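3.2 Worked example (two chains)
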Amino acid sequence: MNYLAHIFLSGNDDFLKLGNFMADEIKGKSYKTYPEEIQKGILLHRAIDDFTDHHPLVSKGAHRFFEEVGHYNGVVIDMIYDHILARRWNDYCDIELPVYAESFYMLLESNEHILPKKISKVVPYMIEHNWLLSYSSLEDLKNILKQMNHKTKHETELHKGVDIYLDNQSNFEEEFTQFFEDIQKFCKSKIEELNTQK
């Protein structure tokens, strides 16, 4: 799961969204230095990643990318799933995606002091290029993956994942639908669990 899905799966709690969004930069037990509600978002993010990594449908979809991108296939499936979510957004959310994205950007700007430095440096670029909305465009997605090629340790062609997705679109769509139903149920239960913990 990438940014859009992580934020959406946090529900309506702004601090859960913030914690979930910034969680990749929070290592080990350092999450405990943040306010309690932010901590919950970080723990939710970790639970989502673990659930996703061990879900058989995600593994099945990721395997289709392995021949072209090797062990970066998990990165590509995350991006593809965010694309499907963005394109089918109205099936899952009553708020239009452009409005939802703008609201989240405002949330980030008003809470910049909470964000880790590495994240706060990325936020202006994220807003300028409207990352959350751009996931809905395959052309934009391919461009993002091309840019990510330059950040990997080995030479990669992550953007070829878009062509693989198109060649297997019906399978990806079906798998996403089933998986997203599962992860929504999981997150609802996980959020309830986090809210009852002291």
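3.2.1 Second chain
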Amino acid sequence: METLSGVKEPEEAADSACPVCKGAGFVHPRLPSGQPDYSRTVPCSCTRQERDKKSRGRLQRYSGLDLELLQKMTFDNFDWKRVNLPPEQRENLKKAYDTTLEFARSPQGWLVLQGDTGCGKTHLAAAIANYRLKEDKPAKFEVVPDFLDHLRFTFSPESTVTYDQLFEEVKNAPLLILDDFGEQSTSPWAEEKLYQVINYRYNARLATVITTRLTTDEMASPIVSRFLDHQFSMIFHITAPDYRTDATANRKKTARGRKERRG
């Protein structure tokens, strides 16, 4: 097969070309009469897969879920059936699962997940982000202390991102997840930046998820007042203990049982 420039293309390239667009990547749409509209072009369906792949890549980079561990935190592998939990704690964990899954399906308002370290807050928050990405919807996951460090670093000559770019991206994210709220340094600058983000998103009514081990009594009053707006914000307290400590205790209990049976 010969091109317009007179250069012959390999036969296999010609054979693999899309039969619709002949490898051009675009086609002329059809008029109501069924005839091609030669005044316009649209992407051919053969380019959809590549465009979808690029779109998913952009959403993944935007999400902040760059750690493999966070990418693996989904609703499918969240263990709310922890066998050694008291029934009321297991029921609480199941309700946390149901609440976050419902939020992931239709993010509206604010969801604040409270609880001790290791109770499952971060897993459920990351699961929301991963669910939205699977639906090809944007979600931004930020660990609060890391976000503030990145914000400070934008003032460095080595930074490839400006302060305004990062700050506006976080402020205006369609769905923002702030993990480990309250673990940041308590400098006036850090408190001011967080208040600006939270106050802006509160006034703009932007969907937000926050995880924290702080109680509302331990939070700064200008911020906690936004969390306590029950018409817009829901606070869910997870009562389960640290999963890692819980799992270790369960393994020791199982080992003791085996030893007793052997004895």
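3.3 Remarks
The chain has two domains: 25-59, 64-247.
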